[in-house]
Amino acid sequence: HKNVIVKANQLIDACFNLSLVEQRILLLAIVNAREIEHLTSDTPIKVTVQSYAVQFNVSPKIAYTQIKDSIDHLFNRYFTYFNDQINDYTRSRWVHESTYMNEQGFIYVFMTPIVIKMISKLESHFTKYYLDQVASFKSKYSIRLYELVSKWIKLGQTQKYELSDLRNKLGILDYEYSSVAYFKRDVLDKAVKEINAKTE
Question: What's the rounded Cα separation, in Å, for the pair 33 and 30?
Answer without folding.
Answer: 5
